[in-house]
Amino acid sequence: MTAQRCDATLTLTDVNDFRLRLIAFLDEYDVAYRSDERQVAIDLPGGEARFSVSRVGLHLEAEADARDGLETLRGIIEHYVALFAGENALPLHWHGDVVAAPTFANFREMRVARIEELSPSIRRLTLTGENLARFDHPEEWHVRLHFPPPGIDRPQWPRPTAEGGTQWPPEDRRAEIRYYTIRRLDVASGEVDIDFLLHEAPGPGGDFARRAKPGDICGMAGPYGRGVAEASHYLLAGDETAIPAIARLLETLPASAQVEAWLEVESPVDELELPVADHCRISWRHRCRGHAPSEQLAAAVVEAMPDTRDDLFVWFAGEADVSQCLRKRLKQEFGLQKGQHLVTGYWKRESA
């Protein structure tokens, strides 16, 4: 298969500042990359992104096996550009294997088929769509759901332009986008289950789930994510937002491994019945007893750290600040290496 490529130029006055901030970000989140004084090359799902020093700033390159991978890489590169050069640096003008299309290759329009109440705070929506085989991935379980504004029967979706950018719908018709985890996927029947946390505060995902009825439309793009490494001992912890991912891990981690999991919900009535194999042990934690979000989860992981950690993997998802602190402790205090942990901030307290 012939690789697809595209490139763009980013004009910068301080290339070194961009480069140092990019490398610090990749190090913090354990993203695989190679670097020297002239280039940073990042290994990403489906291909490689390269940031090379040029006369006017940076030469940006994306290389992938297929159109969908190239589109994903361009989106990731533009995310890094927005983080470290500012939104004003966008849009970029790409050259090479770029095509305009009605939708992105990784996008599917989905409809609500069924609704199930799992607990007072979690509602499951079964969504149906066509050609979902791309989402059947052993490690990439996350998707971006696009929630159109209420009352729009025929939503408009973002689409790629001939310059490699994104043409967004008008503001009043533009969907809100949030990340969710696929709980169950049935490619043959064209169904996915997504579990929604019904936040007290308004939000696009929870609001969509609350008012959902069969036939309602949303969009789904992906998949995204990173898998866990092989280990003999796993420590898993997360709040309601992480329960779908932890539940899938409990179902798929090898029976030869020791698996300990901690799940945090508001109160005992919010606990879910989860299938638990003999090699897995789960414990529930409750915020109603005065604990700050995610802090008792991080404490449980730290308390359970074994003396021998060569064959250990830690998976954690929750509040962003708590996640960041735990990630630093795992590296600095407990000496976990890259590839031994995946610690993610799913949400931030100030903007929950």
Automatic annotation (TrEMBL):
**SUPFAM superfamilies from the UniProt entry:** Riboflavin synthase domain-like
One short Pfam family name for this protein?
A: SIP
Residues of the FAD-binding FR-type domain? 105-230
What are the GO MF terms of this UniProt record?
Answer: oxidoreductase activity
Q: Which residues cross the membrane?
A: none
Q: Which CDD domains match?
A: siderophore_interacting
Q: Which family does it belong to?
A: Belongs to the SIP oxidoreductase family.
State the protein's name: Siderophore-interacting protein
